[in-house]
Amino acid sequence: MRPWTIIALLTVFVAFSACQAPKPVHDVTPSGFLGPDVVAKLTHGGPEGPAWIYNNPDAKWASYDKMLLDPVTFWMAPGSKDQGISQAERQKLVDYFYRVIYNTMSKHVTMVSAPGSGVMRVRVALTKAEPSVVALDVISTVVPQAAVLSSLKDAITGKPAFVGEAQVAVKVTDSVSGELLAAWVASRVGGKRLDAAQLSSWGDVEQAMRFWADSAAYRLCKVQKRQGCQPPKH
Q1: Could you give the CA distance from residue 138 to residue 195 in angstroms, rounded to a whole number?
Q2: Residue 74 C-alpha from the chain's centroid
Q3: Torsion angle, CA of 148/6/200/136, rounded to 10 degrees?
Q4: What is the DSSP letter of 197?
Q5: Which of 86, 178, 191, 225 is paired with 159 by a 20 to 30 Å CA distance?
Q6: What is d(CA 95, CA 89) in angstroms, rounded to the nearest whole number?
Q7: Residue 206 pLDDT greater than 60, yes or no
C-alpha cells in the first residue's frame, strides 16, 4: 500500500474513532413486556434520551421516597428466538442489572421489600442483549481499513461492527394503587474505543446497564426537584 493511502486511511480512522462513544438507538419497537395499555401511552424520546417514554403529568414525585424493585427479568416475546444466550448467561445479566439499579437508586431513595405509602414499584426487563465479538471489535478499532468498514456499517445500520447491544423496558407504578407513573424503552450500542468494556464480550451491555441506572437516578432527581442532580456519563 502506498504511503499516502495509509495516511489517508489513518486520518479517516482518527476522525471516526474520536466520536464513536457508546450511543442510544432510537429505531426501536416498544416491548410487549409493558403491555398494550402502557405502550399506547408512549411517545418518542429525545435524541439523547430513551427511544420511547411516558411520564404521568399528575404524578406527585416528591411524595415517593421509597422504591420496591422487582427482580429484573429477561423478557422475550412468545415465539421469538432465544438470541443465542444461554439461561446461565441471561441469569447473570439480570442479576448484575438488578445489583446496579439497586445500588444506584439506594443513594437517592430508601429501598424496601413491600408495597406501602410513598413507595414506587419498578419493574425492569432486559429485552435484548448481544455480546461484542472481542477480537474483531479490537481489530476494527485499531486497524485503519477495518475501522473504515466498521464506520461505514455504522452509517448504514446505526451500529458499528462487532460491538455489543442491549435493550431495556421499564415500568414505574404506585405500589399500592397500581397507577402508572412512568415507562420507557431504550436501546444502546457500544462504541469503537479502546477501554475495559471493549475487552469483555458483555462489557458493552454492562456499560449500558450502568448508564441506564445513572440516567434513571438523574431523571428522578429532576422530577423531584432536588438540588445537585448529576447527569449520567456517556
Answers
A1: 10
A2: 14
A3: 70
A4: G
A5: 86
A6: 10
A7: yes
| Residues, the chain | 234
- pTM reported for the whole predicted model: 0.76
What pLDDT, on the 0 to 100 scale, is given for residue 9? 42
Phi then psi dihedrals of residue 187, to 5 deg? -135, 145
pLDDT digit string (tens) for 26-66?
A: 678 887 889 999 999 999 987 778 999 999 999 999 999 99
Strand, coil or helix: 133 = coil
Q: CA–CA separation, 218 vs 210, rounded Å?
A: 12
Q: Whole-angstrom distance between the N-terminal and C-terminal Cα of the chain? A: 37
Cell numbers of 97, please? 442489572
- Which of 49, 73, 90, 44 has its CA nearest to residue 222? 49
Q: What is the pLDDT of residues 139-178, one digit of tens each?
A: 334 344 344 344 434 443 455 544 668 889 999 999 999 9
204 contacts 141 by C-beta, under 8 angstroms: no
Nearest Cα residue to 130 out of 26, 205, 24: 205
How far, in Å, are 62, 75, 216, 227 from residue 221 at the CA level? 9, 28, 9, 8
Q: Is 110 in a helix, a strand, or coil?
A: strand
From residue 126, give the alpha-carbon distance in Å to each of 14, 77, 88, 209. 33, 12, 15, 9
Rounded Cα distance, 22 and 204, in Å: 8
- Spell out the residues 6+ positions from residue 192 whose beta carbon is closer than 8 angstroms to its own: 16, 17, 20, 137, 140, 141, 147, 150, 151, 154, 160, 163
